[in-house]
Amino acid sequence: MRMGLDVHVDLWYDNVRRDWSLWAVEQLSEADFILVIASPKFKQRADGMAAPHEGRGAQFEAAILRDNLTRNLKEQTERILPVVLPGRSVEEIPTFLNAYSTTRYEIREFTEDGVADLIAAITGEGRHKMPERGIWRGNAQAIAATPVTGALTVARMHWLLSTPDVRLGDAVFEGVRYADSIVMRPSSMSTEAIGFLDVDLGGRFQTMRSAIGVLDDASERSQVGLFRVHVDGVVQLQRQVSHGKPDLIKVDVAGALRLRLEMSRPWITVAGDLAERSSRLPELAWGTPTLR
């Protein structure tokens, strides 16, 4: 949590009487990533070697994980992360997680460097980045499109077009500050219903990553934000987020010429298919949108 992750552990939910099996189903369904901590007892229960009355909760949760892996092996292999803490052994990872043929995360010490590989799996940002591909010299037309080295924040680029209520600033989601963000916080409803900006890509980038969310200090905590990414005039991503639940997005922009980042509050359905603009002001932001 100190590193900005939204973490849920059952020990923190003992404040009321609850159905723990339903709690487990909810967490295992909604979590972006699940950490499986290696231990002799959990391996025994997860591998079906324990008595039925022994560690019922662990056996129940492990069955769900095995079912998820069977349903979509590639997706769930990336989502379920086996972790070996200091003093534990790789041999204590449950058999169904294939400790020797898939990545495992051995934590040597509880420091930022000690958990760097685990954080890389969660953020998608590895320690060793693949270098940008150079220009193919066999195509004379490609020489004009010189690739950008490193990363460039959208907020610092020249904006070809933008609505007046969109500005450069800092954004804070769940206590994490994002510099070079694009913030929409109009003072009145006289501005556009949708805030956006356009930038020229020139075919120089491969991906665009950003956090999206409702600002932590939003006056209305129940609001929802609608975010869209347009690449060369086509919507490539649409995502809704609510206060306290920001998201991280990644969009392929390889070879694209123009990018539009758009944010608004969703329109409200009032009758049948009719919809009207929300009467509440948006307090939204793109958190450090970055092109590579």
UniProtKB/TrEMBL annotation:
Name of protein: NPCBM/NEW2 domain-containing protein
Domain of life, source organism: Bacteria
Pfam families, per the entry: NPCBM, SEFIR
High-level lineage: Bacteria, Bacillati, Actinomycetota, Actinomycetes, Pseudonocardiales
PROSITE patterns named in the record: SEFIR
SEFIR domain segment(s): 1-116
